[in-house]
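Entry 12.
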Amino acid sequence: MRYVKAPANVLDIGCGNGRFLQGLINKNYSGYGIELPSKSAERASRIPGLNLKTGQLCEDDFGEHFFDAVTMWHVIEHLPEPRKTLQIIGKILKQGGYLMASLPNIDSFQSRLFRGRWLHLDPSRHLLFFGALDLAKIMQTFGFEIVTINYFSLEQNPFGMQQSILNCMLRKREVLFEVLKGNRSYAREYSSVSILLQKLFYITTFSLFALLSVIESCSKKGGTMEMVFRKMK
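Predicted 3D structure (tokens):
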């Protein structure tokens, strides 16, 4: 972890299967995770040394100024009450502690080009959208200053364009995305040939869209962004 050196207390909100925290624990960090009840949470609970809460972040979960860093990887856009969550984070972070968050960039080229077919729009699951400046202003009201913004993600941004193009061509959204996650039943109306063609499109065009993602990130218009904030007070 770039900004916080071990030993340190790190909370990952929406920790999934705990793989990120497991890596930190192996490097002598103390890892704490929060995840909604799911198979991912069950897997996280089996990781040695991971302190897991199954459920949502509540005010009395941790003491004040307990954590050196809090992370939210593609979580904030799912929160029904983001201000409440940010208030709690402000209390449990030490002064000078870091909040690291990744999220879709509503000001991105992808968002403007694909509009309702954009992968990261993810209707019904994504409740909120921010541009970098908007979120920075909101975070300032909670006592945070912006440290850095990264607009490039090799994992998220090229595929965001690829799946959005497929969304424009198919009746159903996110078919390839769900298939790659192992949810083949989601795409039951699509033949094996159709799925194969979508996979070939993904493989053969990835390098092109990776290059386009570099270009869009240089313009601060990447499909997703990773923002680092420091608690000032």
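Annotation: The helical segments are 19-25, 39-45, 82-92, 109-114, 132-141, 157-169, 175-180, 192-218. The first helix runs from residue 19 to 25.
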